[in-house]
Amino acid sequence: MIDIDPNGTGLPGIEQLRVIVGAVMTVGLILSVLALIISAIVWGFGANSSNPHLASRGKLGVLVSCGAAIICGAAVTLINFFWNVGQTV
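The structure assignment produced for this chain is given below.
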């Protein structure tokens, strides 16, 4: 039986890579908030100007930015979940 686990100290630079990934997650969340604000403004302008195309684009932008924030926030949990599922196979 082979039993291999991830090695957090096996290669140089692993800790720096963790810091970089954390920073990218932070940037992703900040950009999601910015996209949400812009999309909400577009949605508002579209609704107030009786422009259904602009309003629907704003709604889609709100949904996409919320989805991106969910994925950024849940990325580590999702990876850990599927890692554990893979270990039971």
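Interim note for the steering committee: Residues 25-88 form one domain. The mean pLDDT is 93.
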